[in-house]
Structure formats: C-alpha cells, structure tokens
Amino acid sequence: xxxxxPFLQPGDLIAMVAPAxxxxxxxxxxxxxxxxxxxxxVEIGAHCTGEFNYFSGTDEERTADFQQAIDHPKVKAxxxxxxxYGSVRILDRLNWAAFLREPKWIVGFSDITVFHQxxxxxxxxxxxxxxxxxxxxxxxxxxNSMLAALEGRNLEYEIESSPANKLGQAEGILLGGNLSIIxxxxxxxxxxxxxxxILFIEDLAEQLYHLDRMxxxxxxxxxxxxxxGLIVGGMTDMKDTxxxxxxxxEELILSHFQYRKIPIVFNFPAGHISDNRAxxxxxxxxxxxxxxLVYFRSFAL
Length: 301
Description:
9 helices; Rossmann fold; 7-stranded mixed beta sheet; alpha/beta; single chain; Glucose Oxidase, domain 1; 6-stranded mixed beta sheet
C-alpha cells in the first residue's frame, strides 16, 4: 500500500523549482510572497530564476534543484514555476526513491504533465493546478482551489453545461493533463493505466488536424475504450489551416466517441486559462453531466 501524502498546514516548507523554461525572477518572488502570506515557508531552487538558452538552467542544474526538493525531508510540496518545455529532459535523471518512501505534492500543469504521468504510474496523487507564471492573471477561484487541494479541503465544482456535452454520470480515478504530453508519452514507461479512469485533457495553440491525429492515437492505443468519462478543459488558441479543417474542437472530439457511450464535459475550468481550477490526479472523482450543470467532486483519499 502506498504511503499517503500529508496535506499541508501553515508552517510547512514549500520548494519552488523551474524544471523547464526560464521564468522572470519577479514572478517567482511574487509567488513566494503569496505562499508566505498564507503561513508557509518557501525555499526557491538555486536555478529557479536562472537562464540557459531556452531553459532555467542546464539539464544538470534543473535536475539538481528538483532532486534536492524531492530529497529534502522537510519539503511538503514542490511548486513548479512554469511549463514550456524541458521536464522530459530531466525525468529519467531523477532518483525517485525518496519520493516513493515519503511522497510529497508536486504541483503544476502544461509541461508538468510529464511528472504527473510518471507519478500516476506509481499510483500516487499529484496536483494539476496553476503555477507562479500565471498567478497574476489567475482568478481568485483558481488560486483558492490550489490551496484547497494542498490543504486537503473539498474540491467540488458546479459549472454551466455546454450544449456539446454528453450527459451521464461516472466515477473513476482522475488521470491526464496536457494532451500533447499525454500523446507524446503513449507507449513509454511513463504511460499510466487508464482502465476505468476519468481522463482530463487540455491544450494550447495546437492545429485542429493535430488534435484529430492525437485522438486517433488515443483510440489506436486503446485508451478511449478504457476510460469511463472525459473532461475537456481549456482548448486555448487552437489553430486552423488555410483551408479550414471543417470541424470545431467539440465536433472533432465527439466524432471519436460516436460509438463510445461515456459522459463528456467541455469547457471545464482548467488549463491555459485564467480560471484554472485545481484537481488531484490519482484520486477518485465523480462527474454528473446534466443538461444545465456539470457537477464535479473529489472523493476522500
């Protein structure tokens, strides 16, 4: 049986690292001040505000920061400062032994899906939530939900139902993250078991034809036949070709579920949007999709 991850209490130590793209120092310091205002201690990785070409540091430097946060006995949560690209470059450099002995919360989204997927293979939870890069533009609900997830408070959302939704109820372990990252890890040792799960996806600035291609890959890999429900978050700034693809995002996705009878939620408040609500991957959730409202709630760990 896996060791449960303790929820945070004021006075606990949070580590902030930048495992991928570089980030402005001011944004990191503002995020540290935010957590300190809530009663937490914050330790900023040595290279969190650094810069090495596209990245916040060399692969070795970014690995060292993340490893120190994993191994630090007093760190209770690791906040990833931003995404971009780079997490996969350090994934296999990390030693996860201390994490498996005493797991801690890893928080982030977008490129941080690399770590979420890896952790899902351990059957341990992690938190899909906003990051310091976005704190200044996030809604209060997004920031409060991140704290609620870290502190073990209920995550229950009621959102307006999209006309494109497929109605129904489902329960399952919540898995997923950024669709492009999920797609890139199919067939690798970082692909979790999607059997009887609720799959969450979001993405940014993808071509519609590539979205279609990714869904064909999910289908060919058997993933779409394994899941009990689909939650579609922000599909932000999707691109179309000069000759239009001919379908909206909703129409495209629904075309892959013509003979798959599961509830589907569109426009869920999570992803590359200001109202980026927190969710705990690796935790059982329930969705109830009705004509007027969608109800989402987490179960106790």
